[in-house]
Write a structure and sequence with these properties.
By secondary structure, the protein is mainly α. Helices cover about 70% and strands about 0% of the residues. It comes from Novilysobacter luteus.
Length: about 140
């Protein structure tokens, strides 16, 4: 289970690295350094092009790294939630793998749970408890 691809390992490490405060501080310092050099270069088009190109390239690459990490994390959370549903006595196994069903079917499940929530809030307003395991 530990055989992650080189890209997955790289994306995760890069995402972690880029999320640290010193990296943010370095980025701010880089921008401040660029601003300070403005008068030195007469605020030229080349001077502006340097920051525009640099930030565009960095942003473009980081988006893919962060998206990969986020997709993996989301997938892991979904699997963990599926396992909790599977292992919980009385849980509805039809809720497993909901992220892969059609939108109209997902909306049907959502409507059922909204109705349950509305009923529970009405019970609370009436002074009753909102606990229990009602059927959706």
């Amino acid at each position: 289970m530990r055989n992650a691809s080189w890209y997955s390992r790289f994306a995760k490490a890069s995402s972690r690295f880029c999320g640290h405060p010193p990296v943010f501080t370095f980025a701010v310092a880089l921008i401040l350094g660029w601003l300070i050099t403005g008068p030195l270069f007469g605020f030229s088009d080349t001077w502006q092009l340097v920051i525009n190109t640099t930030t565009t390239i960095v942003t473009f690459l980081i988006v893919f790294l962060i998206q990969n990490t986020q997709n993996r994390d989301t997938e892991a959370i979904q699997i963990k939630l599926d396992e909790l549903i599977r292992a919980t006595q009385g849980a509805h196994n039809a809720l497993l793998d909901l992220e892969d069903i059609e939108d109209k079917n997902l909306e049907a499940f959502r409507s059922k749970y909204r109705a349950l929530a509305a009923t529970a809030r009405a019970d609370l307003a009436a002074g009753n408890q909102d606990t229990g395991t009602p059927e959706p």
